[in-house]
Amino acid sequence: MIMDAVLLQGIANGLSLGLCYALIAIGFTLIFGVLNAVNFAHSEVYMLGAFAGLVIIQAFAPPFMAVVFLVAAVGAFLGFGLERIAFRPLRRARDEASLKSRALREATLMSSLAVGILVRELAELRFGGDMQPIPSGAMLNTPIAVGPVILTTGDFYIFGMAAAMLLLLQFLLYRTKIGLSIRALSDDLIGALYVGINTDRVIVWTFMIGSSFGALAGLMVGLYYGTIFPYMGFAPTLKAFIAMLMGGLNNIPGAVLCALLIGLSESLAPEIMPTRWVDLIAYVFLLVTLIFFPAGIFGRKAERV
């Protein structure tokens, strides 16, 4: 009975952790699906979402849902600025060879990495490198007993937030004009350009949606754990990136499932191995995927990680 309770507790904690990875992975996957480029500044969007929540709470102490909408707006603004600064200047050419070139992918990768490093250093200068505590009244850590399992309000908020955002994303992608355009660019950027789709506008929308998800993930993690710091985005964003690779690069459901797998594995692993080895689990998954599933577990056979 004790082991059953420990297992259930580990599963509950792993689902919360995996859903946080999933919210970050969705942003990665959206942007990669449209541009075929990795946005390595996404970890800073995640971090700035957490700090934006802290500033808003300290300044106005608004209701939780108001904080959520404000942080989502901040994330959308960050995505808009990131696309304009780090990606659009490198897409001046409109010919097929330039848009599909390896040089463009490498240039956008390095550009986003440079912007991310700059933003992280500026955040450290502004907020300091130490842990910043979340006001106790805003934290989502009230314990709730569910049978033998002790959950917190944060677990329920994270699950509800992830479910709502995934449903909203499905609605946007399959029931709106901008969602149709995003899927068209994901299938064939050159074809979408030739049939008259405003690709720049669609790419901006993609960055805004993906960055909103990343910023909200940072907010939820900050409120859940109670502390934030400028380098908080590196580890979870790297694991979300691995989840995207495992899922098949541009497969959103696959990325979400793989993020849950990573979260559950990290939560349950301390029962069978030393805690110091837990962070290696995601990299083992990545290695196995690259060897046995070169297109990703849920990816198309035509594309390779």
TrEMBL record:
GO terms for cellular component: plasma membrane. It comes from the Bacteria. Keywords: Amino-acid transport, Cell inner membrane, Cell membrane, Membrane, Transmembrane, Transmembrane helix, Transport. Coiled coil: none annotated. It comes from Vineibacter terrae. This is Branched-chain amino acid ABC transporter permease. The chain crosses the membrane at residues 15-38, 45-61, 156-173, 203-226, 238-264, 280-299. Belongs to the binding-protein-dependent transport system permease family. LivHM subfamily. One of its GO terms (biological process) is L-alanine transport. GO terms for molecular function: L-isoleucine transmembrane transporter activity; L-leucine transmembrane transporter activity; L-phenylalanine transmembrane transporter activity; L-valine transmembrane transporter activity. It is found in: Cell membrane. It holds the Pfam family BPD_transp_2. PANTHER family: BRANCHED-CHAIN AMINO ACID TRANSPORT SYSTEM PERMEASE PROTEIN LIVH (PTHR11795), HIGH-AFFINITY BRANCHED-CHAIN AMINO ACID TRANSPORT SYSTEM PERMEASE PROTEIN LIVH (PTHR11795:SF371). It is a multi-pass membrane protein.
